[in-house]
Specification:
The chain is built from five helices and three strands, in the order αβαααββα. The protein is about 55% helix and about 10% strand.
């Protein structure tokens, strides 16, 4: 079944909605975004028992006319779709290596400056004399 055939087949659309909901549930349990390109989306549908020609133009027609699909899809483009996974931030947090080098150096300098007075005071204390027995 192709995307454009969904309009005449509630069963095909129902299967497609169930597949998308399953992927959203899996992604939510992993706290990860769910993105699929058109080829993988087509393979998933075939494995589920129906065929569809997945591409941007035909998906857009279905998306524009089907509120159930609109509620499940966060975004789609020429590369594929991104599902609306609850609890996932809009933008993924950036990992290490994304901080500006000046900001990194400033953070190190601030940490060193706050630790320096305590370390200097400890190093200037006279060690206690060993106990004579």
């Amino acid at each position: 079944m192709r995307f454009f055939e969904f309009a005449n087949s509630d069963t095909g659309l129902d299967k497609f909605v169930i597949i998308l909901k399953n992927f959203i549930g899996r992604a939510a349990s992993k706290k990860a975004p769910a993105r699929m390109n058109w080829d993988s989306l087509q393979r998933i549908a075939q494995q589920s028992g129906f065929e569809m020609g997945a591409d941007y133009e035909t998906f857009k027609q279905i998306y524009d006319t089907t509120p159930a699909i609109q509620n499940l899809v966060k975004d789609f483009n020429a590369d594929g779709i991104e599902l609306a996974v609850p609890g996932i931030p809009d933008e993924e947090p950036k990992g290490s290596g994304t901080q500006n080098p000046q900001d990194s150096q400033a953070a190190v300098d601030a940490a060193a400056a706050s630790a320096a007075p305590g370390i200097t005071a400890q190093s200037q204390q006279t060690p206690p004399a060993p106990a004579l027995t």
